[in-house]
# Entry
Amino acid sequence: MSVTFLGNGPAITIQDLGRPNQIAAGLSRGGAMDQLALLEAAALLQSPSVLPALEIAGFGGAFKIETQTRIALTGSPMAASLEGLPLAWNHTHMIPAGATLQLGACRSGSYGYLTFAGGIKSPPHLGSQSAHLMAGIGAALAPGERIEINQDPDPDAAQMALATEPRFDGGILHVVAGPQTDLFDEATQTAFFSAEFTKSNRANRQGVGLDHPSLKFGTDLAAGLASDFIMQGDIQQTGDGVPYVLMAECQTMGGYPRIGTVVPQDLPKLAQAQPGTRFIFKLVSRAQAEALAKTEAEQLKALRAKVTTVVRNPADMSDLLSYQLISGVTAGHDPEG
Amino acid sequence: MSTHAPDSPVILPLGLTALIVRFGLKAGPDLTAAVKAFVADLERDPIAGVTEIACSLTTVMVSFDGGSSVRDKTTKALQERLSRRHWTSVASPDPMRRWTIPVAFGEAFGPDLTKAARAACLSEKDAITDLCSQDVDVLTLGFAPGQAYLGFLKDHWNIPRMEAINPSVPAGALILAIRQLIVFTNENPTGWHHVGQSGFLPFSLERAEPILLRAGDALRFTPVPPAEMTSILADNPDGLGQAKLEVLR
# Structure
């Protein structure tokens, strides 16, 4: 049971929720840039847990799928087609054996996710299948490369859809103060938390730069600081006084001062925005941030409640045999239940 | 809650699910000894709800599972631990193991040796002798998987990072700044001085034991001529670069 990457985008990797609790070894968590997209896929495919998916940055790609399986398409919407027929985003789809799935460039956002109902079969390293390119774990898919997938556990399941919250247009990034916030004087903090930034081109799985047309946000107290812990979401001010938010594949320690930490639930918004998208950092108390915070289990539960069964009109379907129409109606899955 | 040159350790929140105990802002042997002793204490007698403990040169990070009530409880428990003893006057424990690692210094294998030796007011020859005449301890692992900050070198090696970033230093490179050494795990840019090259790869998924170095390890470097390093690198299936390991206690 395999899928062959026929080629296109240069930055397609296997991603799950990463490797927590490896900081003492010097390894950051890594995992999908938009972890919400993995939770959405799990809800759509009615999987009890998050499945490792293909994270597809920017360009899309073509995939020959050798085995019949359901898939979910989540994250940044891409022009998707199966043997030339368009496929809806944020939906599950049944792919017949031997079909070619074509994903185009991101329409909005930066990372699309292709999840197979049975998950991807690849050797875990330290409890995760995620590629962590900065650490030298795994690699981007090369054209012609085959990956193995597991059997779809429920091929008769109905087609499902999910109406998602928009997260591709920038906006407010909620920030909590960190151990080094006080190294920045009050005037700098005030200016920083009222300035409007744009996402820069300096963005990858390691971090995202933000630009401001005129202001710099430095501190004189940075010189000679011992390297200290850095985490995902930290807003690091490098030597030139420009903010750089650390993302999935950040280093675990660094010497540059950090003005605060973007809360986890806003990171998908920052990861997904295209260059030029506008953002404002808003300082909130830890209590406010905690009120917003949801665990993965809570998020998954909420998403499951929002998933709906797609009822199709047979007249709209050009190839009835490629759809599990009857079982879709009769399988009796009640997503609200 | 002043963060400017604290006299005593402070506990500060990091993100929503971690706390750091900061013993100081600038690195030094007394703070590193305090950090190591405090981590050892937390590992020997764990605090309930703590999911992860890690240390930098000057801080200990404690992650927990749960919200503000767990943070409050953990903060209280950490405060109680801090008050048990004067952590910055703890003596550094003796190393448990010692690695002896062949290194070729200077020229193509260490293009910044000249600059670093000059900054330390030593001839290149004396610099190599000096760097190979002392053990350096694993101070902490960080930045990249399995990569160790090693130190502390003598005071004359308190030299700043270079002004220009070296765009690419290979895995196994020995780099130096601010009284510390690092054996690089992966080809990456650095602002530290590239003084030598080993065949010692601290992180490799090809090995049964991907991470070689750990707290309690000491390292000593043995100078070898460039030709010998070339042959070590040419035949290095285990990524140990002919390093030897002694268990000391």
Summary: The first helix of chain A runs from residue 35 to 44. Chain A touches chain B through 41 residues (CB under 8 Å).
